[in-house]
Amino acid sequence: MQKIPQKTAFTLSLITGLTLIFIGIRFFVMPLVAETAFGIHTHTGGDYSFQYIKGIRDLFCGVILLLLLFTRQYKALGLILLVSIMIPAADFGVVISHPDFEAAKLFPHVIAVLLGLGLGSYYLINTSKKKDHVAL
Protein backbone atom coordinates (compact mmCIF):
# COMPACT_ATOMS: atom_id res chain seq x y z
CA MET A 1 0.00 0.00 0.00
CA GLN A 2 2.86 2.38 0.71
CA LYS A 3 3.78 2.40 -2.99
CA ILE A 4 0.77 4.49 -4.10
CA PRO A 5 1.46 7.44 -1.74
CA GLN A 6 5.18 7.29 -2.63
CA LYS A 7 4.47 7.32 -6.35
CA THR A 8 1.90 10.07 -5.97
CA ALA A 9 4.27 12.25 -3.93
CA PHE A 10 7.10 11.60 -6.38
CA THR A 11 4.91 12.41 -9.40
CA LEU A 12 3.48 15.58 -7.85
CA SER A 13 6.97 16.71 -6.83
CA LEU A 14 8.29 16.00 -10.33
CA ILE A 15 5.43 17.91 -11.94
CA THR A 16 5.91 20.80 -9.51
CA GLY A 17 9.63 21.04 -10.23
CA LEU A 18 9.16 20.81 -13.99
CA THR A 19 6.36 23.38 -13.89
CA LEU A 20 8.54 25.82 -11.96
CA ILE A 21 11.34 25.35 -14.49
CA PHE A 22 8.87 26.00 -17.32
CA ILE A 23 7.51 29.12 -15.62
CA GLY A 24 11.01 30.39 -14.92
CA ILE A 25 12.14 29.93 -18.51
CA ARG A 26 8.93 31.53 -19.77
CA PHE A 27 9.65 34.66 -17.71
CA PHE A 28 12.95 34.99 -19.59
CA VAL A 29 11.67 34.10 -23.05
CA MET A 30 8.19 35.70 -22.98
CA PRO A 31 8.17 38.08 -20.00
CA LEU A 32 4.87 39.82 -20.75
CA VAL A 33 2.98 36.57 -21.38
CA ALA A 34 4.41 35.10 -18.18
CA GLU A 35 3.53 38.21 -16.21
CA THR A 36 -0.07 38.07 -17.40
CA ALA A 37 -0.30 34.38 -16.48
CA PHE A 38 1.13 35.24 -13.04
CA GLY A 39 -1.79 37.59 -12.53
CA ILE A 40 -0.47 41.15 -12.78
CA HIS A 41 0.27 43.76 -15.41
CA THR A 42 3.13 46.18 -14.92
CA HIS A 43 4.12 49.02 -17.18
CA THR A 44 7.85 48.55 -17.45
CA GLY A 45 8.65 50.57 -20.54
CA GLY A 46 10.64 47.64 -21.87
CA ASP A 47 12.53 47.02 -18.59
CA TYR A 48 11.87 43.40 -17.68
CA SER A 49 13.84 43.39 -14.41
CA PHE A 50 10.85 42.20 -12.38
CA GLN A 51 10.12 39.42 -14.84
CA TYR A 52 13.74 38.24 -14.86
CA ILE A 53 13.89 38.24 -11.05
CA LYS A 54 10.70 36.19 -10.96
CA GLY A 55 12.04 33.92 -13.68
CA ILE A 56 15.32 33.08 -11.96
CA ARG A 57 13.52 32.53 -8.65
CA ASP A 58 11.16 29.97 -10.19
CA LEU A 59 13.88 28.34 -12.27
CA PHE A 60 16.11 27.96 -9.21
CA CYS A 61 13.28 26.55 -7.09
CA GLY A 62 12.33 24.03 -9.75
CA VAL A 63 15.92 22.84 -10.17
CA ILE A 64 16.38 22.52 -6.40
CA LEU A 65 13.19 20.47 -6.07
CA LEU A 66 14.27 18.11 -8.84
CA LEU A 67 17.81 17.76 -7.48
CA LEU A 68 16.53 16.85 -4.03
CA LEU A 69 13.92 14.51 -5.50
CA PHE A 70 16.33 12.63 -7.76
CA THR A 71 19.05 12.39 -5.12
CA ARG A 72 16.45 11.05 -2.68
CA GLN A 73 17.06 13.80 -0.15
CA TYR A 74 13.46 13.52 1.02
CA LYS A 75 13.85 15.20 4.40
CA ALA A 76 15.54 18.22 2.78
CA LEU A 77 12.86 18.20 0.07
CA GLY A 78 10.14 18.21 2.72
CA LEU A 79 11.76 21.10 4.56
CA ILE A 80 12.23 23.12 1.36
CA LEU A 81 8.63 22.49 0.30
CA LEU A 82 7.28 23.63 3.67
CA VAL A 83 9.50 26.71 3.94
CA SER A 84 8.88 27.69 0.32
CA ILE A 85 5.16 28.12 1.03
CA MET A 86 6.02 31.73 1.79
CA ILE A 87 6.71 32.34 -1.92
CA PRO A 88 3.26 31.48 -3.36
CA ALA A 89 1.62 33.01 -0.28
CA ALA A 90 3.42 36.30 -0.95
CA ASP A 91 2.63 35.98 -4.67
CA PHE A 92 -1.04 35.54 -3.75
CA GLY A 93 -0.85 38.78 -1.78
CA VAL A 94 0.77 40.61 -4.69
CA VAL A 95 -1.85 39.40 -7.15
CA ILE A 96 -4.86 40.09 -4.93
CA SER A 97 -3.62 43.60 -4.13
CA HIS A 98 -3.28 44.43 -7.83
CA PRO A 99 -6.12 46.80 -8.86
CA ASP A 100 -7.39 44.69 -11.77
CA PHE A 101 -6.74 41.18 -10.42
CA GLU A 102 -8.74 38.24 -11.69
CA ALA A 103 -9.85 35.63 -9.18
CA ALA A 104 -8.79 32.83 -11.54
CA LYS A 105 -5.18 34.05 -11.32
CA LEU A 106 -5.18 33.32 -7.58
CA PHE A 107 -5.74 29.58 -7.92
CA PRO A 108 -2.20 28.63 -9.01
CA HIS A 109 -0.81 30.36 -5.93
CA VAL A 110 -3.29 28.60 -3.63
CA ILE A 111 -2.52 25.25 -5.28
CA ALA A 112 1.21 25.87 -4.78
CA VAL A 113 0.65 26.51 -1.06
CA LEU A 114 -1.43 23.33 -0.75
CA LEU A 115 1.16 21.27 -2.63
CA GLY A 116 3.93 22.62 -0.43
CA LEU A 117 1.99 21.80 2.71
CA GLY A 118 0.91 18.36 1.60
CA LEU A 119 4.12 17.17 -0.03
CA GLY A 120 6.39 18.78 2.54
CA SER A 121 4.46 17.16 5.39
CA TYR A 122 4.42 13.81 3.59
CA TYR A 123 8.18 13.76 3.09
CA LEU A 124 8.97 14.87 6.65
CA ILE A 125 6.58 12.40 8.24
CA ASN A 126 7.77 9.49 6.13
CA THR A 127 11.49 10.20 6.50
CA SER A 128 10.99 10.37 10.28
CA LYS A 129 9.17 7.03 10.26
CA LYS A 130 11.97 5.38 8.28
CA LYS A 131 14.59 6.59 10.77
CA ASP A 132 12.55 5.34 13.72
CA HIS A 133 11.93 2.03 11.99
CA VAL A 134 15.61 1.52 11.13
CA ALA A 135 16.66 2.31 14.69
CA LEU A 136 14.46 -0.51 16.01
Give me the secondary-structure topology:
Layout: H1 3-29, H2 31-38, H3 49-70, H4 74-83, H5 86-97, H6 107-135
Transmembrane segments: 9-29, 49-69, 76-94, 106-125
Keywords: Membrane, Transmembrane, Transmembrane helix
InterPro entries: DUF4267
Compose a concise summary of this entry:
The chain is an all-alpha fold and 136 residues long.
The profile of the biggest β sheet is: none
Q: Indicate the percent of residues in helices.
A: over 70%
Structural class: mainly alpha
Rg, rounded, reads 17 Å
- The coarse overall form would be elongated
Q: How many domains make up the coordinates?
A: 1
What is the string of helix and strand elements? Answer: HHHHHH
Alpha-carbon distance between the two ends: 22 Å
Structure overview:
By secondary structure, the chain is mostly helical. The chain has one domain (3-135). It is 79% helix and 0% strand. It has six helices and no strands. Helix 1 crosses helix 2 (31-38) and helix 1 packs across helix 6 (107-135). The longest helix has 29 residues, at 107-135. It starts with a helix and ends with a helix. Mean pLDDT is 90; it is low at 132-136.
Notable features of this structure?
mainly alpha, about 0% strand
